[in-house]
Specification:
The complex is a heterodimer of chains A (152) and B (102). Chain A is of the alpha/beta class and 152 residues long. Chain A contains 3 helices and 9 strands; from the N terminus they run βαβββαβαββββ. Chain B has 2 helices and 6 strands. At the A-B interface, β4, α2, β5 and α3 of A face β6 of B.
C-alpha cells in the first residue's frame, strides 16, 4: 500500500540538508512537526536535535525519550503534532537500513537525507509497515516556501 | 487497582485510536499484559520475539522510568499513570557505503 505524500516546504528541506552537512561525517537527527489528518500529512516545522549516539555517530543516531517528550511538547505548543523524524546517512544511500527498520515505530514518517562528502544528495521518506516487516516509501512533495501548504 | 496507560501517538492506531486506556493491574508487567491482551496488534510493537520489551520502548510510572524502579515488577497504586514513551534510533548501513544492501 502506498502512503499519501508527505508535504514539506522547500526551506525546511534546505534546513534538513544543511543540518546533515553541518554534522557530517556524523549523522544528524531531528523531529518533524506538523499536521496529519484527512489523508494529508504536512511538515510545518523542525526541531533539530543532538545525536545522542556518542559511540558511533557516523552510522547511528539516537533520540532519547526526554528529547521525544520535548519534541511532543514543542508540537503541542504550536497546536501541531509530532509527525516524524529526520536523520542523515553520511556517504550512504537515502534508504532505510535494517537497523533503521528494527528500531522504527509505525505511523511516524522517517525522512532520510544522503550526505555525500559533506553535500546533500537524495532525500526520501519512509513509513514502517504494520507488521514491521519492511518500510513503504512515502512520496515527498516539496512545496515552494511562499505557498501555504494547508490551503492546497 | 485502576490505572491509566497513556498510548503514544504512533501506537494509537493499534489501540482503538485511544490516547489512554484504563485497566486493572497491580504491577507494570500486568498492566502491559492486560493492554496487549486487549489490543493484540500492539504486541509486536512493544515486545521483541523473545517476549521482552523492545529497547526503544520506555515505560514510566508517574514520570519515573521503570528501569530505575523494579522494571516490570514495579508495583502500582490506585490512580497511577503509566506512560509509554518512544526513543528513536537508526542509522546508515554499517558495512558498505553507497549501493550496499539494506
Amino acid at each position: 500500500m502506498s502512503a499519501p505524500p508527505l508535504k514539506i516546504r522547500e526551506d525546511l528541506v534546505s534546513k534538513i540538508q544543511a543540518h546533515g552537512g553541518e554534522t557530517y561525517p556524523h549523522e544528524c537527527c531531528g523531529a518533524l512537526l506538523g499536521r496529519d489528518g484527512g489523508g494529508l500529512r504536512e511538515v510545518l516545522g523542525l526541531l533539530p536535535l543532538s545525536n545522542r549516539r556518542d559511540d558511533s555517530p557516523r552510522n547511528r543516531f539516537e533520540v532519547t525519550p526526554e528529547d521525544v517528550r520535548l519534541a511532543e511538547k514543542e508540537a503541542r505548543g504550536r497546536e501541531w503534532e509530532l509527525v516524524g523524524w529526520y536523520h542523515s546517512h553520511p556517504d550512504a544511500p537515502a534508504r532505510p537500513s535494517e537497523y533503521d527498520r528494527e528500531h522504527a515505530w509505525p505511523w511516524y514518517s522517517y525522512v532520510i537525507v544522503s550526505i555525500e562528502k559533506g553535500t546533500a544528495r537524495d532525500m526520501t521518506s519512509w513509513r514502517l509497515q504494520d507488521d514491521r516487516a519492511a518500510y513503504d516509501s512515502e512520496p515527498v512533495e516539496i512545496v515552494r516556501s511562499s505557498a501555504s501548504i494547508s490551503s492546497d | 487497582m485502576a490505572v491509566k496507560v497513556i498510548i503514544p501517538t504512533p501506537l494509537r492506531p493499534y489501540a482503538g485510536k485511544q490516547e489512554s486506556v484504563e485497566l486493572q493491574a497491580t504491577t507494570v508487567g500486568e498492566a502491559l499484559s492486560g493492554l496487549t491482551r486487549q489490543f493484540e496488534a500492539l504486541r509486536k510493537h512493544l515486545y521483541n520475539d523473545d517476549g521482552r520489551l523492545r529497547s526503544f520502548v520506555n515505560v514510566y510510572v508517574n514520570d519515573e522510568d521503570i528501569r530505575y524502579l523494579e522494571k516490570d515488577q514495579t508495583r502500582l497504586r490506585e490512580g497511577d499513570t503509566i506512560s509509554i514513551v518512544p526513543s528513536i534510533a537508526g542509522g546508515a548501513p554499517s558495512h558498505s557505503p553507497r549501493g550496499g544492501s539494506i
